[in-house]
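Fig. S4 source data, part A: sequence.
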Amino acid sequence: MIKKKKSKNTGRKLSARDLKKEVFKLLKRNARKKLNAKQIIKKLKIANSRDAVQHALEGLTEEGKLFSFGDQLYRLDRNVANNNGPKITKEHQGTVDMTRSGAGYIVVDGLENDVYVPAKFLKGALNGDKVSVAVSVSRGRRKPEGKVVKVLERASEFFIGTMDLKAKYGIAIVEAGGRTFDVYIEPEDLLEAKAGEKVVVKITKWPTRTAKNPIGRVTTVLGEAGSNNIEMNSILINNGFNIDFPEEVIAEAEALDESLDEAEIASRRDMRKVTTFTIDPDTAKDFDDALSVQKLENGEIEIGVHIADVTHYVRPNTALDKEALKRSTSVYLVDRVCPMLPEKLSNELCSLRPNEDKCTFSAVFTFNDSYKVTSRWFGKTLIHSDRRFAYEEAQEILEAGEGELHDEILLLNTIAKKLRKKKFKNGAIAFEGEEVKFRLDEDGVPIEAYVKERKDAHLLIEDFMLLANKEVATYMVKASKGQEIPFVYRVHDLPDPDKVADFGKFAAELGFKMTLDTPRQIADSYNSLAKAARENEELRLLEPIAIRTMAKAVYTTENIGHYGLGFENYSHFTSPIRRYADVLAHRILFKNLGGKTYRANKEDLEAQCKHISAQERKAMTAERESIKYKQVEFISKHVGEMMDGHISGMIDRGLFIELAGSKAEGMIAFETLDEPYDLDESRLKAVGRRSKKVFKMGDKVRVEILDADLLKRRIEMKLEEME
């Protein structure tokens, strides 16, 4: 037997120069493999630290010799492997989408893939900023990389910082988008903030060179760090949402008059005598939709979907309108709402409160005895809501078959089920992400965390909103008559084939086989998975992963349909109090009713759609951060206790565990286990080196909560046992 020659580097700590050389040689020998620092150390059998190897990898990537996949995996650049010559660099404009690591992806119109930019090449750009990026274009490379050349437009001018006072000036230390930076503040702009206090700071001048600090002024002193109020406001501001409205916006809102003159009343369809009600969450104050029901003399049923007429009060190019567009959406954190419109509008003038006459924009449908739509009407109306129901009240009526307005609610539910059945028959996908809710004490501290259960009362409202949104979009398409009328569509593209294929392999390893050759087969397979997951708890972890294979729904003037809902035409019309897209839809629809034709400037409308979509993504990030904070806060009261969960993810450092009930996610570090574990390349399992014990995705575990760090939003766990 020939003994394998021992490497001269075995057990040695290489110099930085030699380390780079050996790493490059290793990846050249394994040109098709993706490796991380830990795997490289193991293969080279060297004594260098993971950080040292990571530094070498980043250096080689910067030199164009390696390609980074953005998750600390590297492979030999195909141009090096294939001798394709130098890379071609082109400059593009795009928007920064930050990752938790501090790196970013630049979303560029016209490029198939987002441009990955390591943190050190972002040139101070933050999440949502518009930038010019130099993109390396190489033959054979699937995903582009680049460097930010210039920040063109900042997404936010307000940030949360911690004050540090110097002898002649102040510094606000800001953490935003994975970066920490100091904001220089003159003494007269400190607003008497004390050292250690949290403040809201407005940037008045950004640096022209990376080495310089931005200059700003304190606009609000929030107080000592650590309180729930400050943390929630920090989440909002660091995601680009101002917690206060400008003075001119408040003044404009307060000056609005809710009284209606005779001419306005005469211009609207009067539906105040038709039975009308709202169904909303128990805590809601902004009621932007109501339903009416009446039986017609011919035996048909008329159902009205009545939406708050925000455009009656918010006129184009006013301070209110400009601020609403800037925000684009209300942001719903666990314990508060950052509204798109001031309270005078959102909770008073526009809110469809019971026993008040209200201006609405309505979609009124007539159904025959088979519950099919036979006619539809769109226009401005007056309504008078007879009753406000919480979802829980409406659900009790549906289950008991009795209660106030029970005939109307039961009828609506019957029709909603017909609409739902037709939707799925036409290819809609049934995935629903689980929504975590909290019960808070008077100080905002969570005392219970649970998954919200969606029942018929929720689905009933959703189905009629979907109907109105679909029919409005269809009306606008038909009104075009071959000559496009620019409109705001809510679209959802087909899923990425590569992501779907990878997911199919993943699902197969967990015992669920899927047919994924066509878009319809993908939808059918995903629906089959959703059904199977209701009976097999282990398959539930596949649902959120399946959702991540989907394209993101966006607003655009290009109507490509909504794949997830199975609709050819879809828009957002039903929530103008909290979504600016709906405000635009109302304005354009109204100008195209009654045989009139109005065409907005498509280029301007598309720019608004892009801004609204970007704001929506930031709002979703803020909402997720709020939930994460409350989950960690909830778990912090249970340190030392045993809890059940399942393995929800794996990385080199350990296992992610999602806890039952709260769905809080924490980590078990591999170093806390009784032996070293190797992570499989698929990241679906980890194998013990000595015992060959296997941990798989979805495995149920029991853990002890070791620590819950609110500052870092991190939960540490220790494995107790595995089923």
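Fig. S4 source data, part B ends here. The first helix runs from residue 16 to 29.
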